[in-house]
Amino acid sequence: MKGRDEIAQALAASGYIADADLATAISLMQLLRRPLLLEGEAGVGKTEVAKALAKVHAAELIRLQCYEGLDQSSALYEWNYQRQLLAIQAHRGSDSIEDQVFSEKYLLERPLLAAIRRPQAPVLLIDEIDRADDEFEAFLLELLSDFQVSIPELGTIPAVTIPHVVLTSNGTRELSDALRRRCLYHYVDYPDVDRETRIILARVTGASPSLSLQIARMVEGVRKEELRKVPGVAETLDWAAALIGLDVRDLHDAPETVHETLICLLKTHEDRARVTPEVMQRLLGKVA
């Protein structure tokens, strides 16, 4: 088990700049072997935590993207009905064919089953769990409590290894107390200027410290405006890459380019109209 500082350094080496609280949460997640629930606004980097963890552990990343109507067959397993039908037709009249077709040979793994049957513990990302239905959330409890799943035709399948489980939620609906009890919890907020500067330096080729700091300060100002969709870290990185690609070295030297490239940050018509050249100049005036 690595300590908080070691975790932060390992994540940084993989390209993810974590704050002290997140590094502590991951450290405890590994110590207690408990799932980690990351909640926060869209775009703050929750999914990237799981990707960085997979790099740190040199492990496979298995991702289950949640959505309304997600059911057990899509998340856990399905039977290969086409192969089963062919087998039944080929062995018509055989008394044992029913037992044969409901065997491992005809089982199709989906993310949850795959995650507990890997010989090396993978990182299991259950992304945007708040988009799934209450029924699916309840189904997850057996996996998160005992790391085993039940398949009626095969019985209970225990985990070969316990995966590193990361759940993310954008907070679009309230999660159940039962799910929260089974997880450690961390709220992921937008990074402060210092951390976002470090993120830009780590992720954008050609970014200078001075320009990265200006971009982080400008994005901080944009986020404080009354926007319909607040830009996330991914938008910051896109904007930084665009400015560097256009050979901008200082935001004050290229105000027109700054405003034109705000399309990287602002993703709705209302937000684009709200951040006028005058608003942009006001925000830029606060950037050293």
Describe the structure.
Helix content is 48%, strand content 13%. By secondary structure, the chain is of the alpha/beta class. Strands 2-5-8-1-9 form a five-stranded parallel sheet. A two-stranded antiparallel ribbon has the order 3-4. Helix 1 crosses helix 2 and helix 10 crosses helix 11. The longest helix is centred in the C-terminal third of the chain and has 15 residues. It is elongated, with a radius of gyration of 24 Å. 30% of the residues are buried.
List the total number of helices: 15
Poorly predicted regions are: none
Placed side by side, the strands forming the largest sheet appear as 2-5-8-1-9
Distance between the termini: 42 Å
Rg calculated over all Cα atoms: 24 Å
Q: SSE order in H/E notation? A: HHEHEHEHHEHEHEEEHEHHHHHH
Could you say which overall geometry the principal axes of the C-alpha atoms support? elongated
Number of strands: 9
Share of helix among residues?
40-55%
Largest sheet: 5 strands, parallel
What's the pLDDT, averaged over the residues? Answer: 92
Q: What fraction of the residues are assigned to beta strands by DSSP?
A: 5-15%
User: Which class do the helix and strand fractions yield?
Assistant: alpha/beta
Task: Explain briefly what this protein structure is.
The protein has 15 helices and nine strands. Helices cover 48% and strands 13% of the residues.
Reconstruct the topology from this structure.
Elements: H1 4-13, H2 20-32, E1 36-39, H3 46-56, E2 61-65, H4 72-75, E3 77-79, H5 81-90, H6 97-101, E4 107-109, H7 111-116, E5 123-127, H8 134-146, E6 148-151, E7 155-158, E8 164-169, H9 177-181, E9 184-187, H10 193-203, H11 209-223, H12 233-245, H13 255-260, H14 269-274, H15 277-285
Parallel strand pairs: 1-8, 1-9, 2-5, 5-8
Antiparallel strand pairs: 3-4, 6-7
Helix pairs in contact: 1-2, 10-11, 10-12
